[in-house]
Amino acid sequence: MIIRLETPKEYRAVENLTREAFWNVYRPGCTEHYVLNQYRKNPDFIPKLDFVMEEGNRIIGHVMFSKAELVLEDGTVFPSWTFGPISIHPDYKRKGYGLKLLQYAIEKAKEMGIGLLQMEGNIEFYKHAGFDLASKMKIHYHAEPKESDVPYFLAQELIPGYWGNREGTYCPPKGYFIADENPEAFEAYEATFPLKEKLRLPGQLGYEE
Question: Which of 17, 57, 147, 151 is deepest in the core (most CB within 10 A)?
Fold first, then answer.
């Protein structure tokens, strides 16, 4: 198993991997591959934290990092970071590859001086990489009441004391919503991939039987 930086010639293959990893997971179909496609042109994208994982000369995983911001109580903008999408090919899920990829990437982020990460995800998985509820650090999610312990919003201080005793609110970087903001461009991009069936499944956002 090898983890290394992604190269431009691998962009399409990694986008297809991301599509396979997220298809019908959070919604019928997915948009994460388009987010990745567009994000490489975003100034918040961090090329030095854009990693692929190989197993037997096959790319089976990918993760990217982005700059983010926290708005403090006095309106000051405080620098922070996030990551995702993080993708593991369906053939390799639930075998520990995702955790190994994330742990490697987090160590590289520390070496670059990145002090704080927050993200949206399942705490039962991400706690193994050092994450906890962001509310415990007085970091609020923009779409929820400040007093809420939002179960899917997580954070981790990479540099001790970086966040200190501050309090602030996080909003995901704008580039993460690009498929919803540009539906026609997304549909044109999606049409360049092989046709796959979109299914409404239990566990998806907004699923109702």
Answer: 17
